[in-house]
Automatic annotation (TrEMBL):
The keyword Endoplasmic reticulum does not apply. InterPro entries: Glyco_trans_2-like (IPR001173), Nucleotide-diphossugar_trans (IPR029044). Pfam families: Glycos_transf_2. GO terms for molecular function: hexosyltransferase activity. It comes from Olleya aquimaris. This is Glycosyltransferase involved in cell wall biosynthesis. Residues 5-130 form the Glycosyltransferase 2-like domain. PANTHER family: COLANIC ACID BIOSYNTHESIS GLYCOSYL TRANSFERASE WCAE-RELATED, GLYCOSYLTRANSFERASE. The keyword Transferase applies. Signal peptide: none annotated. SUPFAM superfamilies: Nucleotide-diphospho-sugar transferases.
Amino acid sequence: MTIISIITVNYNDKLGLERTIKSVQNQTASNFEHIIIDGNSTDGSLDVIKDNENSFSYWISEPDTGVYNAMNKGIKVAKGDYLLFLNSGDDFSDNDALKRVSKDLFNSDIIYCNINVIGANSQKIKKCPDQLSFEYLYNDVPPHQATFTKRNLFETIGLYDETLKIVSDWKFLILAICKYNATYKHLDDVITNFYEGGISSVQENRMLLKQERATILKEEFSLFINDLKKMIELRDTITDLRNSKKIKLLIKLGLINKF
């Protein structure tokens, strides 16, 4: 049976950590290990970890240099076939989530699902596409809270880039799909909850996110970027023409064909 390594990174988020740990403990599946990487928290998180340490295959609490340094620590000690990053605060959508997904965890390098995005006064489902394109990855990425990655893919591509603050997981995925031809599969199932307020969803970090993405795209995919921008410009032009009242009238009069 496929073994899943659930890696939880935490820093001073005691309540979020408790929620994540409880959610993992409540899973009806048993083919997983749970790894806790704590960044030397001072808010009582360590007490939560020690109270639940029998549920973990590995845990550590020590300073780190950032979230991706912590995630890389988890990768290095993981024993599972697939890795899932369910960081502090995130939880599974229901107790059978892992059990449903487990039967499809084979062959593909990357398997991703949908998530619930929960805000202060709203909730929505983020549904991922079945087919990943460079255009989609240019703007977005399947959520790491619902993405299972083969452990040996990190051996092929390398660990997360620790020089980046926000988009290293996005860099890894776009390189995996577009440069290393990693195989992937989408499971149309909501398996985890993401609570808005993480590092990449805070407004003041949006500019840094754009800057980091722009740097990676220029370094790794400069030729693709030019073609993509031209394609988007042409598509926008066609969209504008389709919405033009004059064009709609000409089509209605039969003077030009619908396009």
